[in-house]
Amino acid sequence: MPASYAYLGPEGTFTEVALRTLPEAATRQLIPYVSVQSALDAVRTGEAEAAFVPIENSVEGGITTTLDALVAGTPLMIYREVLLSITFALLARPGTELSDIKTVSAHPAAQPQVRNWLKANLPDAVWESAASNADAARLVQEGRYDAAFAGEFAAARYGLTALETGIHDAENAQTRFVLVGRAARPAAPTGADKTSVVLWQRDDHPGGLRDLLGEFATRGVNLMLLQSRPTGAGIGNYCFCIDAEGHITDRRMAEALMGLKRICREVRFLGSYPRAEVSAADIPSPLPGTSDGEFMAASDWVARCQDGRF
What we know:
By secondary structure, the chain is an alpha/beta fold. The chain contains 9 helices and 15 strands. The protein has helices spanning 14-19, 36-44, 64-71, 111-121, 133-141, 154-157, 208-217, 251-263, 292-306; strands at residues 4-8, 29-33, 50-57, 61-62, 76-85, 88-92, 103-106, 126-129, 147-150, 161-167, 174-182, 193-201, 223-230, 238-245, 264-274. The strands form 3 sheets. Strands 1, 2, 3, 4, 5 and 11 form a 6-stranded mixed beta sheet that branches. The protein has a 5-stranded mixed beta sheet with strand order 8-7-9-6-10. It has a 4-stranded antiparallel beta sheet with strand order 13-14-12-15, with helices on both faces. A hairpin with a 7-residue loop joins strand 13 and strand 14 (238-245). It is elongated. The model has no long low-confidence stretch (mean pLDDT 94).
């Protein structure tokens, strides 16, 4: 049997479409799971080699179910990311008219991307959340709901008709998906990389978040995502999920992570991996004083001072 990749199912999700853009997906058994948590747990238990899940969209930011599943449990690591442009179709059983629709369903992350269309076209329809957009289509097929927002490609899979296509409130909306596996050595840097971490403060104090962000800022590391998530330890207790430009082997990134390790109660490294649709030629030069060469020169200078050779 080939090695398997778990993904947010059932068949016909945007996640499956994005996963199939990876060349290695053709050599893996692709297994749908009912939730992001169950897909990631399949990696933790060894049922799957890796899991492919959505983690961020350009309308609402980080997808909390995925972030929370990565924050808790045995540490996992991100190895790849894929960006997919997203537009929705309104799928219903054959013979259904727009005026017949009283209930609609989709993944919660879809709602902010179709909210205005829904208000303008189906203002009285009741929204019901589903585990995924394809699962919403399946529930429509079974008669549970009247219509689902999903990819147009899911219509044939579930015997539905697309009443409307090209639905999106925001132009050029994209969702970011990640390939997650067990912890191992990160891939070699490409010059266009991203590093993801989760940070827990030692205590709650004025300027605490500033202190965390300062470890990146003083070393010229640009942040791409910052999202707080509750720890479950009570109101006001949060950890911070961060994506930053660069690779852990970059001196500025490594020193920022060392600084965070000193001042945080816990730092969870989620991986350094290539950025999707970006090459090294697209990345601007580091800020003055933050290149690897300048970090090395400063380290050599300190060593000479320690030896009395300044």
